[in-house]
Amino acid sequence: MNTLSRLKQIALIIGDIAILYIALALTLWVRYGNFFYSKLFNQHLEPFTLVFIIWIAVYYIAGLYALPALKNNLEFKKKFWATNLINTAIAAIFFYGVLTYFSISPRANLAIFLLIFGSADYLWRHFYNWTLAKTDPVSRLLLIGSNKTATEIYDCLIKNPQLGYQVNYWMKEGLEDKEFEHLSQIIVANRINTLVIPAHLKKDGKSAKLIYRTLLLGIEVVDLSTLYEILFQKVPLAELEEVWFLENLAKKHRIYELISAPLEFIFAFVLSIIILPLALIIAILIKLTSPGSAFFSQKRIGKDGKEFIIWKFRTMREDAEKDGPQWANYHKDERVTKIGKFLRWAHLDELPQLYNILRGELSFVGPRPEQPEFVEKLRKELPYYDLRHLTKPGITGWAQINYRYAASVIDSYQKLQYDIYYIKNNSPLLDFLIILRTIKFLITNHA
Hints:
Layout: H1 2-32, H2 38-61, H3 74-98, H4 107-134, E1 139-144, H5 148-159, E2 165-171, H6 183-189, E3 194-197, H7 205-213, E4 220-223, H8 224-232, H9 242-248, H10 254-289, E5 295-301, E6 307-313, H11 338-346, H12 353-358, E7 363-365, H13 372-381, E8 394-396, H14 398-402, H15 409-425, H16 428-446
Parallel strand pairs: 1-2, 1-3, 3-4, 7-8
Antiparallel strand pairs: 5-6
Helix pairs in contact: 1-2, 1-4, 2-3, 2-16, 3-4, 5-8
């Protein structure tokens, strides 16, 4: 079922790429009357390809490949044209400010290209969105359960038909419902091809036999938790039992961890040298605007539950935690200094954490490390909380880009669901996507 979503995104990306190159060919035809001339096309191919790669990345960062966003509504139109405005600026900077190596003069070509591509890609995406909404769903579901997880799944699928799922029948009462005994008949009558069930039904003897019979009807059986994870990209902790963690959180990424550690060290070392002048300026400004050290250090809990000292530029008064650790309030916090507000807004206060990466205590991507006092409280109130310490913490992470700052136990519970999802699905591709979405967050947050 997850493959279906990926195929839809891949088809959309392929369509965008095709339109980019068709628009380039049409531009050369309009400008020169011929695009079959190989030398002319080759001269433009390399520089425009570099721009196209950046454009596709910007499309992703803007969320134009997220299936829930593929609707022909005002929000999509605003996002589409705003993103293309950004891409236009990128292309202009590239061709007018950076381009010296390539022997082309793209000013008129770029204007023609933007007109052709903008119109063609908008029509393509409008058609694609319409097709997703009108096409018969690939997965016709029989949903069993009435708990919060099942309700969230139902609400999501009703609002997002473009995802390719349709709930044809919702059996809310589960085992207590007499309809459950007529499961096969319901499946045939409602043209069901996918059965979505709570995991515990597989353990119930009577239910398991009824579910087993559906295999003869060619039915795909999916756990509620699996579909929830696909739709929301987090795990529903309330649905999970210990056996799930044994099956899904075993050490699967040892090779990636071994390779990524030295690469992160090298990148952090190079980045530290590059930002050193900026770091010195920030340190001086902090010293000039408030008494105390330019740096702030604090105990945090890292991988395997080990304590380490995290470093930041100080953004609060020196005595900010004289009464002990407090939940962060990023909307209004009297303890934050004037320069500290700017540093937090620009996320420049995080720069000293490159030192933690060099020491092997942090990664660029991973669950955000918490203070020992909060960890002690949260491990008592939240099930499976310590599992987030199975991997090295990070400067940014899946929970950070999907959920607001944690200001309560409830917030921490939501972020834990994203953290467990990250640990389960950790990969180079996921880390790369998190970095791209972090860039998007920084840009849109500042805008």
